[in-house]
Amino acid sequence: MTEAPLIQHLIELRGRLLNAIIAVLVIFLGLAYFAQEIYHYLATPLISVLPDGSSMIATDVAAPFLAPFKLTLVVSVFIAMPWILFQLWQFIAPGLYRSEKQLILPLVVASTLLFYGGIAFCYFLVFPVIFEFLAQVAPQDVVVSTDISSYLNFALKLFFAFGLAFEIPVLIIVLCRTGAVSPDSLKQKRPYIIVGAFVMGMLLTPPDVFSQIMLAVPTWLLFEVGLIIGQWVTPIDNQD
To answer: Per-residue b/e over 34-55, b at no fewer than 16 CB within 10 Å?
Structure first.
């Protein structure tokens, strides 16, 4: 493992960032034509539970145009995530030992699949429960008409929350592999982890118990999965 000047690292970082940005832009240009359809697909869980005669609204003049394209840009980033993560790992790989480099491909694959899994879990399981509950608790004289920009921000917030929560097993494996923590120390912290999972669910989801539990319980279970795998992982001790 050789040291490189700072300027060389900065040039390498710039190249990796450009590669990631170009990939996102290419995907975005390919999806831009379908921006309205993509937004409609995102809004389907809410539209399906709206009372008869209700619909989504746009309170900002440019929202009908900007919201779908904002969503399309985020979707482009999600699709390009494997390539973005690969660029990240390629940048840090020269600074790793050989035994550490063996983790790169499995971690990239696992991180990507788990992130996608968190988003899918949120869209297909959490959204129907949340919106059904919110639609039913609305006062009788209140017409539910959600602003499209507010809905987009709400959905993206939950997507990132669940996507990051599903990365917990990878984080635990990395910590155990690098020797930063041990499985035994994590076991001792299990009560705090459980409490933290429910606090995170309370802060990142709407104020209803169902969505909070649907984030907290998977977070806790993923911690247990990471803990089990972490027990099989031995810390890196060879510095070749």
So the answer is: ebeebbeebbebbeebbeeeee
Q: Which residues contact 185 (CB under 8 A, 6 or more apart)?
A: none
d(CA 154, CA 176): 34
**33-84 tens-digit pLDDT:** 999 999 999 999 998 888 777 788 888 888 999 999 999 999 999 999 888 8
Report CA 208 to chain centroid distance, whole Å.
21
pLDDT at 239: 43
The rounded distance, in Å, linking the Cα atoms of 5 and 22 is: 26
Count of residues for the chain? 240
Q: What span, in angstroms and rounded, lies between the C-alpha atoms of 77 and 83?
A: 10
> What pTM was computed for the model?
0.83
- What are residue 147's DSSP bridge partners? 57
Rounded to an integer, what distance in angstroms lies between the CA atom of residue 14 and that of residue 8?
10
Residue 225 near residue 166 (C-beta atoms within 8 A) = no
